[in-house]
Amino acid sequence: MNSEKFNKIVQGYLNNELSQEHSDKVDSWYETVSSEEVTPFTNGQHRDHIQAQIQAGITAQQPIVLSLPRKRKIRWLSIVAGLLFAGIASGLFFYKNGGLPSFTSSTAMSQVMTDAGEIREFILPDSSSIFLSGNTKLRFDRESFKSERKVYLDQGEAFFNVQHDAQHPFSVATGGLHIQVLGTSFNVHNATSRHQVAVDVQTGRVSVTDKEQQSYVLTAGKSLRYDAQEGLFTCFDRNAEYANMWTQGGFILDGVTFEELSDRMLSRYGVTLKTENLDTHNFRYSLLMPQVETVEQLMTMICSIHQLKFRRDKNEITLYR
Q1: For residue 244, which of 119, 146, 124 has the smallest C-alpha distance?
Q2: 3-state class of 49 per DSSP?
Q3: 286 and 227 share a domain?
Q4: pTM here?
Q5: Is residue 152 in some structural domain?
Q6: 277 φψ region: left (φ > 0), alpha (ψ -120 to 50), beta (else)
Q7: Which whole-number Å values give the CA distances from 199 to 35, 45, 154, 288, in the listed order?
């Protein structure tokens, strides 16, 4: 759908000329792109860029504000109409997996994304809560969620606290796995760069199935690691309290490689790890810190494992001997 056609739809909505069906679809689209929790912005920089464009558009185009029950929606759509006339709104609407609202098919999936170093809690329509670590991307279909509670964890780490609903099982699709529960709490880490998925159960029961229909049932205190390239599962016991330690400011490593450590530091704290004349191929890191006060405190503990030193320059940390 081009901007001219969409502008006509917006104006029809403002003038109360659309059918009830099309008005409802505009409302649904509005709720998706303007929700305080679900954002169309790919990251903070994108958000600031679009905000500047919107401010410039408001200055040049006085929006139409109608005193109707849907005032907030109408004001937003009025601004959109002005921006489309000004030709500066494409950056907002043609974002990844988005676009202008379709009036021939269902609304595009809602997306929740976090920047590096950001931790965010998100509440789903069924009141289930999700904590997302940095560099995490999650999608769900808001329209069908009540009948099919399904989310897609495209990358990153998330801790789920699922509301019990025996009639509507909750499922997560991630990294080639299908995870299904009724009501429980569990952590999922989809490390896309390494093609690995980790599942840690805190309470309840979780069923995990891959594309080959290999299936495992995990209960509280059970964990699973899945290698998507090899199609291999590893199951083991783990303290259930560790599953969401990161959501409470803690940090835990279980024999991870330097690459895995680097990914964790970037997503959790927004810092990049580098080395200076070090062969990290055989390095492994195990660490348990229930509360991390500062990144420097954490790095001191990490460096003590291999008797290393570190220096920090803004968001870049270099390890050396």
Answers
A1: 119
A2: helix
A3: no
A4: 0.68
A5: yes
A6: left
A7: 29, 31, 15, 18
Predicted local confidence at residue 4, as pLDDT: 61
Structural tokens at position 203: 């309470």
* Domain containing residue 279: CATH number: 3.55.50.30
* Boundary (domain end) residue, out of 40, 68, 93: 93
CA quadruple 184, 256, 119, 144: dihedral sign: negative
What does DSSP say about strands 149-161 and 129-132: parallel, antiparallel, or unpaired?
antiparallel
Rg over CA atoms, the chain: 23
Range of the domain at 115: 110-244
Count of domains in the chain?
Answer: 3
In-domain check, residue 100: no
- Residues 26-69: tens digit of each pLDDT: 666 655 555 444 455 555 555 555 555 555 544 444 443 333 34
User: What is the reported pLDDT for 291?
Assistant: 96
pLDDT confidence band for 311 (50 / 70 / 90): very high
Give the pLDDT mean for 219-231: 95
